[in-house]
Design goal:
With 285 residues, the protein is of the alpha+beta class. 28% of the residues lie in helices and 20% in strands. The strands form two sheets. It has a five-stranded antiparallel sheet. Helix 2 crosses helix 7.
Length: 285
């Protein structure tokens, strides 16, 4: 009932949780019925980076400058940096320069608040429940704005089909959806160019999402090189509307098709085996 009420509040309609023709309805159905315990590994930011580094190479991940359960009295990492919760979403603070004593004390309190409870209960995103709680810090990636452009790749049944580009997340957050050929699904005021490493991102996303009927794999790009961001099982918790309803239906149909299509032979485990050899030629791209 809570899921249905939240969905109606955001979309103005009751969800069809049986047929679930829309992508946003499929996200609600995943919350209710998909209880694969391996998904908690995907939601663990530290574990996910370790898996990606093992599969693609450490150059695909952002280095971890520090990790722990509580921020110490003195900053244990350099600046600029970003501090995140290991076990949650949208729990972060950007530190462009060394903070004052008061600002650091406030961040310590905020980190303790993040640590005080598991993430995801209020939106029924169950996979966060068993993710180990923790904090981590990473060097802040170079960007013209506070945060770099985020390329979120939708992978259905092992096939990367769409790229959602998130712009200016720290201030005027907005996003644009493209197909894999970089055609915008709906014309928008923003027309971001494709990243130089788009093909490598698509190949890597497909390799990392092996064995999943749907998984979103996020990347950044720095100096033409792709960097893994995180995995996502519940984009927008299925509560953010798309620019037009047909996109919701199109992505929902892709998810249904992926459920009907046999996955890889090793579908009983997430496959982080080495990616195709042509990814080793990323420098040439």
């Amino acid at each position: 009932m809570r899921i249905a009420l939240c969905y109606r509040w955001r979309h103005g309609r009751w969800p069809d949780l049986e047929g679930a023709p829309r992508f946003t309805e499929m996200v609600q159905r995943r919350k209710l019925f998909d209880r694969d315990p391996r998904q908690s590994v995907l939601m663990d930011k530290l574990a996910a980076k370790a898996e990606v580094a093992a599969a693609l190479g450490p150059e695909w991940t952002v280095p971890t400058a520090w990790s722990g359960h509580f921020l110490p009295d003195d900053p244990p990492f350099g600046f600029p940096a970003i501090v995140k919760a290991r076990h949650g979403c949208n729990q972060y603070r950007v530190l462009r320069e060394p903070p004052s004593d008061r600002a650091w004390a406030d961040l310590q309190k905020l980190g303790a608040h993040w640590m005080s409870k598991a993430y995801g209960h209020w939106l029924d995103e169950w996979a966060y429940r068993d993710t180990p709680r923790g904090l981590l810090a990473e060097p802040l990636l170079p960007s013209e704005s506070a945060l770099p452009v985020d390329y979120k790749i939708y992978v259905f049944g092992g096939q990367a089909t769409h790229v959602q580009v998130h712009l200016d997340r720290a201030a005027d957050h907005r996003w644009v959806v493209h197909d894999r050929d970089w055609t915008q699904l709906v014309a928008a005021g923003d027309t971001p160019p494709p990243p130089r490493s788009l093909l490598a991102m698509l190949d890597a996303a497909e390799a990392l999402a092996t064995g999943q009927d749907f998984l979103r794999v996020d990347f950044y790009e720095v100096a033409g090189r792709p960097l893994f961001g995180e995995f996502c099982l519940y984009p927008g918790s299925g509560l953010d509307p798309f620019a037009t309803d047909w996109i919701d239906f199109e992505l929902g149909a892709l998810w249904h098709a992926a459920e009907r299509r046999p996955l890889c032979a090793a579908q009983d485990s997430i496959d982080f085996s080495p990616v195709p050899a042509h990814l080793a030629a990323i420098e040439a791209r």
